[in-house]
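Minutes, project check-in
Item: structure for the 318-residue chain
Input as provided by the requester:
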Amino acid sequence: MTTTASILERKLVVIAGKGGVGKTTIAAALGLAAAERGLRTIVVELGDQRRLGTLLAGASPGDGRPPQPADEGAETGLVENLWSITIDPDRALLEWLQALGGRVPGRVLAGSGTFQYFAAAAPGAKELVSMVKIWELTLKERWRRRAGRYDLVVLDAPATGHALGLLHSPRTFGAIARMGPIFGQAQRVRELLEDEAQTGYLAVTQPTEMAIGETLDLREGLRAQLGVELDATIVNATLPHRFERSELARIARLDGGGVKRSAMLAAHTAHERARLQLNQIARLRRHGVAVHTVPFVFAPALDLDAVRRIGRRLAERV
């Protein structure tokens, strides 16, 4: 469990969970909260996600200019003390092999049968290279002399199964490369991920049976593969408990049809949905999981202020 006062004191925070539960929103919210505390923070997206810029479209960097679209692999400023980067695993692997191959042009290497074979045959290679790039962001002395230094790296991880494969890649690939620079990098990434003083793990879920089940699977996967625990689970989009049973009974006794009946049915539906959600949250707690809730926002989309409020709320609890 948590070994420091705040998860924001770690070097790396991994945010994982089922697809579609709001991981990017929570990653952005915690990134904003950390930046407000003066921590130089970068949020990492993988593959072709690039959702962070859209989510924070109302933000502007410290010089007042609107944020520019994030280039693949570029560290892009969003607001004061907050950056983002998108890592493409295929491109990361290509760059890594190109570095090993010396002056071989990238387009030649990418089109070669050797590259295609290696990418398909080497278990965990793309995942490991992605994790190496993430690990490098946590270093006080970056590989590039003028590269920015960060106090906190927030990883918006892929969906649960892929996330566990990504996090397990240092062990998977390290078992193949038993010596040399590849083994050394895999070991350093593994040390970072398995050190709970340096890396924190947050699950994001919604209060449904399937999403909660996947959260428990994630917890067991982290235990089995890395020997670490979830610091907490963020249950997103929770509904308020509006009515007591006595109030529902009074509503049921109301006479009339039409609008009154529709209002009565709406009240019962809202109560039942909230009750089912509370049952799923209780299920998590019975398994000893620390739970923090984020209320459902009754709006078509979240604006920057709403994301900031979520971040402040969570930063006080995790």
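Outcome recorded: The two ends are 11 Å apart (CA to CA).
No further action items on this chain.
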